[in-house]
């Protein structure tokens, strides 16, 4: 299934870049980087960090939020819970600017990162 998704996203990415780029090309770029992270590609974190910097510089808050969420998930998967929490906080703080285009249900990586963080919390004695 993921290989099919990769083919579709890559085709979209090529089309959007040939048509001049823009926000849809940035979304396709993000989706490919997220798929790379899912596949364990070693440069995925650096690729996502670069995309985050570009999205911030370009004012593309939609991509910024989604990338922060994916980086948070990546850090949580690697046991770097403090970093994951910080990235999620940044994404949550940016959400009011993009609620009209990004809903909570779009934030799959956010939910998965939160689940990993909750699972990592030590049991509390009551």
Task: Give a verbal description of the structure.
The protein is mainly alpha-helical and 126 residues long. It has a single domain, classed as Alpha Horseshoe (Serine Threonine Protein Phosphatase 5, Tetratricopeptide repeat), CATH 1.25.40. It contains six helices and no strands. The radius of gyration is 15 Å and the shape is globular. It starts with a helix and ends in a 6-residue tail after the last helix.
Secondary-structure map with pairings?
Elements: H1 2-18, H2 23-38, H3 44-58, H4 61-77, H5 81-94, H6 108-120
Helix pairs in contact: 1-2, 2-3, 2-4, 3-4, 4-5, 4-6, 5-6
Ends: how far apart?
A: 44 Å
Biggest beta sheet summary: none
Strand content: under 5%
Please count the helical segments.
6
Look at the structure and give the mean pLDDT: 92
Number of strands: 0
Order of helices and strands: HHHHHH
Residue share in helix: over 70%
Q: Can you tell me the residue ranges where pLDDT is under 50 for at least 5 consecutive residues?
A: none
Radius of gyration: 15 Å
Tell me which oligomeric state these chains represent.
single chain
Category from helices, strands and their pairing: mainly alpha
CATH architecture descriptor text:
Alpha Horseshoe
- What is the CATH C level class, in words? Mainly Alpha
Using the coordinates shown, work out and report the CATH topology.
Serine Threonine Protein Phosphatase 5, Tetratricopeptide repeat
Choose one word for the global shape: globular
For the record, the count of structural domains works out to 1
């Amino acid at each position: 299934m993921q290989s099919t998704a990769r083919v579709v996203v890559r085709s979209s990415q090529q089309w959007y870049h040939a048509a001049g780029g823009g926000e849809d090309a940035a979304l396709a770029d993000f989706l490919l980087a997220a798929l790379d992270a899912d596949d364990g590609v070693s440069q995925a974190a650096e690729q996502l960090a670069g995309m985050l910097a570009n999205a911030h510089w370009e004012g593309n808050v939609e991509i910024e939020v989604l990338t922060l969420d994916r980086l948070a998930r990546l850090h949580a998967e690697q046991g770097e819970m403090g970093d994951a929490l910080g990235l999620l906080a940044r994404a949550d703080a940016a959400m009011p600017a993009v609620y009209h285009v990004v809903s909570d249900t779009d934030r799959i990586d956010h939910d998965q990162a939160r689940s990993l963080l909750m699972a990592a919390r030590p049991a509390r004695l009551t």
